[in-house]
Amino acid sequence: xxxIDQPPRNGQFGKESDWERSEILGDxxxxxxxxxxxxxxxEHASEVRDNVAFWINxxxxxxxxxxxxxxxxxxxxxxxxxxxVFEVYRQDVENGDFSxxxxxALDECRxxxxxxxxxxxxxxxxxxEKRIASEMFVMMCVSTELDSQRVMDGTEKTDMIADHLLVLxxxxxxxxxxxxxxxxxxxxxxxxxVERVMDxxxxxxxxxxxxxxxxxxxxxxxxxxxxxxxxxxxxLVAYDIAGLAMKEMTDQxxxxxxxxxxxxxxxxxxxxxxxxxxxxxYKEIMRRPPKAEE
Length: 294
Fold this sequence. Notes:
By secondary structure, the chain is mainly alpha-helical. Helix content is 68%, strand content 0%. The longest helix has 36 residues, at 113-148. It is globular, with a radius of gyration of 25 Å.
């Protein structure tokens, strides 16, 4: 019928014309170029992360650092590793090594072998979880520093090593010191320098919980994500959030890797608001001195 628009045919109802579609989506060649750039960016970031993980794992081995958590492992591999460590710790207890136990908390189980065994197993599991949290936190911080490529002075490096050793509940004479001294680059510091800072921090702050900051940050991630992430996913989110925070603090928030980290966090379900909240939380937690005992 003349003067009346004909209905769309062949399933074309509601579809734009080729011209309209090109106006909305842009030139296909431009889209291909942008897609290729995103893929290249993702591959580069993945390669950088793999290289950092490889370097850290090798450096830990070089300095004789034994860890429960290891960068780059899958959930299944990490679980098997934790189970193996648990069996070693249980054997240590059977051999008379009670260093990982709170003996006073076991008094109420005396006389009940089954209850005592269950209480010991629970304490060992808690010990392992705390240890993993501290190792993940320190490795995440080291990874972030490596990624930022900044050079810190001797005082800042000494303070950072002291902080990390306190988180790990290690001394300045442990293998961790050698790893951190090399991994953080810059001017070498001595165990004595770090020990003095650790003593001063312990005296001034009376730090009751060396895992306070790492646990609080992981708790924030848990709350923001509703607890739906695995341990490995949580560690990767923590790594990316710390990296974003570090880039913001060093005026590198405009680079492609910053945008890629945002996209990666969004791809697992984090909203812009959640990402912003976690970045702010990381900065606030890291800047806060340890809580003093009452």
